[in-house]
Write a structure and sequence with these properties.
Elements: H1 6-17, H2 31-39, E1 47-51, H3 59-69, E2 74-79, H4 84-92, E3 95-100, H5 105-116, E4 121-122, H6 124-136
Helix pairs in contact: 2-3, 4-6
Length: 139
């Protein structure tokens, strides 16, 4: 979990830790710190939940670096922003999903599960943007 808002990040990590199906490997307040922590890990996380707007290293830069160094790690963008440009930019950066911070907490668990199973997940507010994106770049 990478998010610069301590209360939000810690709250989400606690919420996820309460579910036996998930394990939080680490948390970080920006992409630079997350990449440094990843270098020290013996086990690479399957999924990284990445905020977009962070100081030091934003979510776009973080996603690109994660994709380059750890292509097996799936990226779930996590943002309050449903702006088309940001959604597309995050998809171009390697995100396999995008969930809005206003979503129901259980939706976050669902998104993580879907990505872990090899799928893609998008909150209702960004799903149409993602659908149009994948029409242009089918995979």
């Amino acid at each position: 979990m990478i998010d610069d808002h301590d209360l939000l990040r810690k709250g989400i990590c606690d919420f996820i830790r309460d579910d036996d199906n998930f394990e939080i490997v680490f948390e970080a307040e920006n992409g630079k710190l997350a990449l440094k922590k990843m270098e020290q890990m013996e086990v690479i996380p399957d999924i990284m939940v990445v905020d977009i707007n962070m100081p030091v290293m934003n979510g776009f830069e973080t996603a690109k670096a994660l994709l380059e160094k750890y292509p097996q790690t799936k990226i779930l963008a996590f943002s309050i922003n449903d702006d088309v440009q940001d959604v597309v930019k995050m998809l171009n950066s390697g995100a396999k999903g995008y969930i809005l911070k206003g979503a129901d907490p259980e939706e976050l668990k669902k998104a993580i599960t879907v990505l872990n199973d090899g799928g893609r997940y998008f909150s209702a507010g960004v799903a149409e943007v993602a659908k149009e994106y994948y029409k242009q770049f089918p995979q």
